Every structure is written in C-alpha cells, then in structure tokens.
Design the sequence.
C-alpha cells in the first residue's frame, strides 16, 4: 500500500469501533430503503388485487411492519448523522494536532520563508473538508453501493428489459462524471491556494496595521487585498462552473432514466408483459436508484475536496525539519555552561553568501562575553546558532565539551535563556507570560522572578496586577515593561546560559537603567553572551569580542581594547562623539 494511502487510513485506527457501528447502521438504512417498496408491491399487487379476500387485518400488520422499519431507519440515520459526524470531527482534531506539532518542530529557516496566513489555512480550512470525507466517504460509498446493487437485482427480477435499459445509462454517466471530477479537482486545488493567499495577505496587513496607518497606506493595502480576493473569486468561478456542469448533467441523466422507465413500462403494460403494481414498484426503485447515485456523486465531491486537503496536509507533514536531533540524543543531568565554537561556518542561503567562516570562540563557565561589530558581521546569527535554531554548515558548537547536535533539542534549549530586543509576549495575562519560563511555577515563584527583574512594582500598579491582560504582543505595556517581563520569565526558567541580543538598544534612558539592573542580576553566575549595540552597556564584560566580515578581529577587556586603539576603540569613540 502506498505510504500516503496507509497514512490516510491510519487516522481511522482509534475509531474502528465507531466506524463499524456507523457502517452497520448504514447497511440497516440501505436494507430498509430496499424493503419498503416491496411492502408497497405486496399491498398493491396482492392485498388490493381484484377478488382478494378482506385484506384489512394483513394491511394493519403490513402498516405496523412498515412503521417499525421507518422508526429503525430514523434511529440509524440519527446515529449516522450525530456519531458519524463526531467521528469525522475527532479525526480532524487528531490531524490538526499532528500538523501543529509538526510545524512546531520546523526550524527558523522554514518560518523565514513560510507565510503565517497560509499555514493557518492548512490547519483550518483544508482539514474541515477532510473531516467530511472521513465521515461521509465510507458511509456514502457503502450506502450507495448496497442500494444501487439491491435496486439493480430487484428490478432485474421484476422486468429484465426495463432494468437493462436503465443500466445502459451508467457508462455514459460514469464517463461524464469522470471528466468533470477532474475539472473540479483542479479548481478545488487552485481555490485552496487562493484562500491561503488571502489569509496571508490579511495576516500581513493586520499584523502591520500601525505601520499601515502611520503611512496612511490603507488604500494600498485595500488594493492588495482586492487583487487577492479577485483571484480567489476567479478560482471559485472555475470551481462552481465545473460543479454546476457535473451535478446538472447527472441530474439530467437521472430524469432521462425516469422518462425511459415510464414510457417503456407503459408499453410493457399495454403488451401484458408488466402489471401496474410492478410498474409502480419499478418507479419507486428508480427513485431509490437516484438517491445512491447522488450519494456516490457526493462521495466524489467529498473525495475531491478531502483528497486535495490531504495532499496539502501530507506535503507539509513530509517536509522534514532542517534541524533534527539524533535518535540517541543525550539529555545531560546538569549543564555547567561552558561554550565553545570550533571553526564554525554558516550562511542562511547560498545566494546570500556566508555570514562567517572558520569562527572559533570559547566562553568559560560563568564568563560574560560581549559581541560587538558592524551590522551584518554575524552577531545575532551567532546567538541563533547556539540554541540550534539553525545548524552550522561547518565546524561545531560545543556545550560542556559535547557537540550540541548530539544533545536533545529540549534539553539544549532548556539550558539557554534568551532576552531579545524585539520581545514577544502572548495575548494573555502578566502572570501567564512570566510563567511561560516555567509553566508549573507557583504564584510565589512568579512574583519572586518579577521582583528580580525590577517588574513587580509596575505590575502591581496595573488595573488587575498580575492578572492584567496585556493584549497582542503586550501592546498595552511600554517597551521597558515588556523587556522586564521577558527578563522575569528567564529568571523563572533559571538557565545556566544567557543570550542577550541588544536587549536595551530600543529603550529610553530611564527604562534602560531599570532593565540594565535586572540584566546584571540575571547574569550573575551564568555564562552570558551579550550582543551589544550601545558599547557603554558592556564596559564591565569579562571579555569583549569584536567581529568583522573576516571573523574575530580583536578581543579583550574594555580597557585593553581602548588602549590598543583598534576597531573597538574607533566604534567607542564614534558613540561617545557622534
């Protein structure tokens, strides 16, 4: 069995009992549908035949049997509609969970290129259609085949000629359906891609709404949205045209079948080859035959939509993360915090060139090392390589003497705390954002972490204290307050290694002073790599490393580098005398 087909069927595994019950009810529904016209035939052909004895008692019995069949039919349909749909929803949940987990494993290089709105579309819209396929697919296919097969054999026993006339329509219907199914599939795939484009456009515009409004570029964003919306409507037009021709043509075929049965059935009655009760029964079965044909057509529609979504699901699931841990990954019991870069080379993409080549640097346990240099020299890149957000192309990075590629990603990243210039806070409360550093932390630990980050005082001044919602990305707080919350959650995490990426460069003097005090407290007894923009903030670093496009060009203490009169002294002089 092909891998994708096996994967498709694997989602039924936890719900085989529910699927069996659903299909059993589907068989019961089909059987009852086939039996009821035979009851009508018995009543019209035997009980109401000229010269028959008083049929009232048997008619009452038949009425009771038919009522019982209708009740069983209704109960089975109720189970199918409710439990069957729930099965599809649970499978959709499982797939969405698996896809979300897979996306979380992707490296930064994946998200550098991916559009958030497009990913959201894959997690939501694509899987909804797939849920309907998982539910309706087996059920509609089974009901359609059972009813269609039952109708064929029963009508064949009533009048073979009429039955074969009806069957002659089937190859034409099949070829017609096959042709327009292909058109629907292509149109559905295009439509899903266009929906993803719209989601990406909306996400991009709304996320940057402050920039949009500050430049008064609402008309520009509206024009971009209108263009994406128009492309979506064009794809929908193709889809609806194919769908209309598909269903309209199949409906025409079924009406033609009914006309053929009426005309040739009337001729058979005139020729004494068929009686009226048989013609009535035959017409009832033709009406029933239309229903399984519609179910099979529905199956074809759900199949097209669902398989299109499944293909997009598998395209994402089969994309391996660029950064992976080995099967025998190590989880150190205790991390001391010694870092060493050994002839490290890295570039984001081939067309962008190499950021640095053969870079070597050792940072001892508890040492504070500051990285300085011009933009593009690789300072921030280096801080992304240590937690393995990206993997080096050459050389290796070691933590306590072990290549970080041999370590469990979770263990490695638990050992590293990061404070960045661009702080990301979640749309939740102050306490929830601090507790992100240690999800099981108690209230006392949260407050202690906030106090060490110089955040407790301003938090208590908020309307609801630690329970105050702070909005998307912490928009209700100032830059300094957001930064102190990010430091508090690192305090709570309590890692042996700290990476500070220009953590104070965007702050005013007062906020910088409060943040700098909390950072100095955070760095105590931890291995710290500081990426600095303001050189005045790193004067007390144990060692300052100056990067250039050629790699490390000089290193030493603040006083030593000033005395050398090299690149660092030049950069420092520029900041002191701009």
Sequence:
């Amino acid at each position: 069995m092909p891998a994708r087909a096996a994967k498709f069927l694997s989602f039924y595994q936890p719900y085989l009992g529910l699927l069996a019950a659903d299909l059993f009810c589907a068989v019961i529904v089909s059987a009852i549908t086939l039996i009821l016209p035979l009851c009508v035939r018995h009543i019209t052909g035997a009980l109401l035949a000229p010269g028959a004895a008083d049929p009232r008692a048997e008619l009452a019995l038949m009425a009771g049997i038919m009522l019982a069949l209708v009740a069983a039919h209704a109960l089975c349909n109720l189970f199918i509609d409710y439990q069957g749909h729930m099965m599809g929803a649970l499978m959709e949940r499982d797939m969405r969970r698996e896809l979300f987990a897979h996306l979380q494993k992707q490296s930064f290089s994946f998200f550098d290129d991916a559009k958030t709105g497009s990913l959201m579309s894959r997690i939501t819209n694509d899987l909804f259609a797939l849920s309907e396929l998982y539910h309706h697919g087996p059920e509609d296919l089974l009901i359609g085949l059972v009813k269609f097969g039952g109708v064929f054999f029963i009508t064949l026993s009533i009048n073979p000629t009429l039955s074969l006339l009806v069957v002659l329509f089937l190859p034409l219907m099949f070829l017609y359906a096959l042709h327009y199914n292909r058109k629907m599939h292509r149109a559905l795939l295009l439509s899903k891609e266009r929906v993803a484009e719209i989601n990406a456009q909306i996400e991009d515009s709304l996320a940057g709404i402050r920039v949009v409004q500050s430049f008064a570029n609402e008309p520009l964003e509206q024009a971009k949205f209108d263009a994406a919306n128009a492309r979506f409507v064009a794809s929908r037009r193709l889809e609806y045209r194919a769908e209309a021709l598909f269903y309209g043509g199949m409906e025409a075929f079924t009406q033609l079948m009914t006309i053929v049965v009426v005309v040739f059935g009337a001729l058979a009655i005139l020729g004494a080859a068929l009686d009226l009760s048989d013609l009535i029964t035959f017409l009832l079965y033709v009406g029933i035959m239309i229903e399984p044909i519609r179910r099979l057509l529905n199956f074809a529609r759900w199949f097209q939509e669902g398989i299109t979504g499944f293909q997009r699901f598998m395209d994402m699931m089969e994309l391996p993360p660029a950064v992976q841990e080995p099967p025998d990954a190590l989880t150190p019991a205790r991390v001391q915090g010694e870092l060493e870069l050994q002839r490290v080379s890295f570039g984001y993409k081939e067309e962008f060139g190499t950021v640095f080549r053969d870079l070597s640097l050792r940072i001892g346990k508890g040492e504070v090392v500051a990285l300085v240099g011009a933009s593009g020299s690789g300072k921030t890149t280096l801080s992304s390589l240590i937690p393995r957000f990206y993997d080096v192309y050459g050389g290796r990075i070691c933590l306590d003497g072990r290549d970080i590629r041999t370590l469990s990603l979770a263990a490695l990243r638990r050992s590293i705390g990061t404070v960045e210039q661009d702080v990301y806070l979640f749309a939740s409360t102050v306490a929830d954002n601090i507790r992100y550093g240690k999800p099981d932390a108690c209230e006392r630990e949260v407050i202690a972490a906030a106090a060490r980050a110089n955040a407790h005082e301003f938090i208590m001044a908020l309307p609801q204290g630690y329970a105050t919602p702070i909005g998307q990305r912490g928009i209700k707080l100032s830059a300094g307050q957001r930064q102190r919350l990010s430091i508090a959650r690192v305090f709570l995490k309590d890692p042996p290694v700290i990476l500070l990426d220009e953590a104070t460069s965007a702050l005013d003097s007062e906020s910088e002073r409060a943040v700098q005090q909390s950072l100095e407290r955070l760095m105590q007894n931890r291995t710290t790599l500081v990426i600095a923009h303001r050189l005045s903030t790193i004067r007390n670093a144990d060692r300052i490393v100056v990067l250039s496009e050629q790699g490390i060009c000089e290193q030493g203490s603040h006083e030593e580098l000033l005395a050398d009169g090299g690149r660092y002294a030049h950069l420092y002089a520029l900041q002191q005398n701009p």
Q: What stands out?
A: Residues 339-424+475-576 form a domain with the Rossmann fold fold (CATH 3.40.50.300).
